Here is the input.
Amino acid sequence: MSRAHQLKISVAGVRGVVGEFLTPNLACAFAQAFGTYVGPGPVVVARDTRASGEMLVHAVSCGLLASGCEVIRIGVVPTPTAQIYVADIRAAGGIAVTASHNPAEYNALKLFNGEGLFFNRYERAELLDVYHQSEFRHAVNEDMRRVVIDAETAPERHFARIVRHVDVEKIRRRRFRVALDAVNGAGSRMSVRFLRDILGCDLHAIHADPGKPFPRDPEPRAEVLGELSDLVVRARADAGFAQDPDGDRLAVAGETGRVLDNDDVLALAVDCALRKKKGPVVVNLTTSSAIDDIAARHGCPVHRTPVGEANVVERMRRAHAVIGGEGANGGIIFPSVHYCRDSYLGMALLLERLADSGETLNALAAALPRYWRRSGKFPFQHGRLGQMMQALEAALPGARADRTDGLKLMLEHGWVHVRASNTEPLVRVSVEARSREEADRLYELAASLR
Amino acid sequence: MTRPGSTLRISPAGLRGIVGHGLTAAHVLDFAAAFATFLESPGRVVIGRDPRVSSVMMREGVTGALLAAGHEVIDLGIAPTPVIQHSIRRLDALGGVSIGASHNPAEWNALKFFTRGGSYLSSAQSEEWLDIYHLRKFRFAGYAGTGRRSEDASAIDAYLDALEAVFPLDKLQRFRVLVDCTNGTSGLILRRMMERFGLEWILINEALEGRAFVHEPSTTKKMAELQLAPLVKTVGADAGFLFDIDSDRVAFATEQGEAASEELVQVVIADEMLERGCGQVVLTNLSSTALLEEVAQKHGGRVVRLPVGRQAVTDSLAGIPVEQVAVAGEGTGAVMMPQQFLFVYDGIAAALRLLERMERRGQPLSALIAGYPAYTILKGKIPVRTRFIPDLFDDLEQIFPEARCNRQDGLRLDWEDRWVHVRVSQTEPVIRVICEQRGAAPRRLFDQVMDMVRSYSQ
Here is the structure.
């Protein structure tokens, strides 16, 4: 990978390879910019289980304290848990030290406002300006605040919000047999407590040791979840769940061990949510059309946004959506709990649906509208993307175009979406169609034009 | 003059400044990262802090920088500097960092760096550390090699074990001693010493404070006069001590309620050590009292005078066999006894040594002090234009052709019974004038020199 992308300071925050690129000095300065931006007040600091996390938490605390903020350290917790904690205590903001699903050598600072939400794009740009101008607030000893440690209450605050929205007793009565792969991530202990103690499952967990390194590629995709699939079969589990290191993404395996498509998981979750309460649904442009079909069954509208959790959340708030998410990423956002991607809420919703319906996961998935999907990514040269999009549009005359994030061309029986990645120098191509042949045709077409 | 925002001072021992006005989080990270790089192969590093709130911020930054370099951080929490140095040796660590601004007011803070054995950085080492800082080429360990942090709550007890091996603590139980802790770290040690060894310390201003100290944490005679001396007599104590925040300096007052000159701490300890045959050499700086020469002569010892600042002492100690050094110190109440208690300035050990002398001689503190001939010291400071400083020294040397002249650190002129030292401060943009005479105050000499210096101040 090129050196330039081993560190990325952007409106999304700071992300990079720890060591020469993402240094404690940089983390401290960025945190001081953050503290300057949110103003003096409590700022919640959480981290995932990466080896570099402890170091960065100290550097971040230094910057926050120097800016006059109080630091509330809640230890190793998933990102949604940290976001909920921020909202719960009405903090001035929050910083999660996590590179989410990125490989172990990366780390990053995820930034949240006082409501535990992503800043809007204008705020993010402002914060970045503060950082670049180095115009930090420098607290003097008299105004300086301290570090407060709360290593206990964060998970319980999160659970308390979830159990208000699912029928815990109904789930407990079924005593589901559940397999879990927690990737030795931030959710390791918490997921065991949630599934075993709160939802009363017969839990078979692997990789739930936060002291160990990631045992697999931390992004929970079917190709890397072989161990979970085997465990589901061996334990004759009703469901298998896999998380990413910061517990926002969820992958789900059915009772045969087959890992469900993330779009299907989101579709199931949307169905669950709309059964509880009707209302708008918000998903990104790359998410399956199955969402539209399901929402239509419930008589609910669907809004589409550019890719990115912050975009989806922003639109959800405007639309007063009852559920949202990003299909391909395995992120389910259920605003009654919090406007964040939350693997715990996802697990609870699906188990509740199993209990309600008496069906198996595979049966529920089989009943979803059937689409064929393909996606891929290609390196591309700067300046080439526009030509590719023009060529694609010319090759598919009569398609309806959406240009809010790259180019999405919608045809009668499918669509194709090409866009530049937010995080890597890649172009991402996604297609979906009613038939495998049509999906392949669209994908090959897009791939041939790059 | 000092501009706001320019209080940062880098010295061979570390850096200090007013937090938020010169000393920033970025400095903490950069200088600590330079130190972490300087220590080379990853290993143990001991850190501790004083009670200032800003010390928490600095601890976080220091911890982050050390962990990033792959070091194992052992955090002693709030700990006196001598205890940190002792733990570096005890834990066979690569080095350590003391976070705290010692005798400076509450808004200040500082980082002091130590190497193996708890030693101060030599001049060569500190230059290397600064070179790394200036290059900004820090060595980081990468994601898999970042260090781990642990806490060690046993540091004070281990330090007390070492004190117990050197001092006859059981014999010191009979003294009733008043101590002003100035809201600093000395209370932690003394409270524990009371519990473990039954010493009778009456502690005032013991509560650790983060934002404001009950009084300025300096160990001058003036402070002891104001804060300590009157109380010693009131509570009927045998002695009174006053510590700075990190307990490396001490001032004292007698049972009669008399504050002693800060110069006397090293004098009494030199007397005691030389009398017992513990070494022959007294290391001190050019600004300290000439009474030291008189005391040394009495025991056949000698005084080695060095430029002001700990660096000169540290460098000089490296070249003298340790068994020859009776005491090394400065007239600020900072004294070390290299043979018996590490190479560290330690106010607690100095206080114990004074008590031990009272016990051994069977004399009250006032009588011990009365045994020394009177010397009177006058001190002044004047801002000058840096450009003219060399001219000033040349002119001074010319008007006093009869005096012995020493240009090691500014200008020192010596006569039979008096001397004057004119030097540039390391901590403020001023010229300091220190003038001492056996007996009465050297008023005429002092005024003459001050006038001369003042003529350069415009």
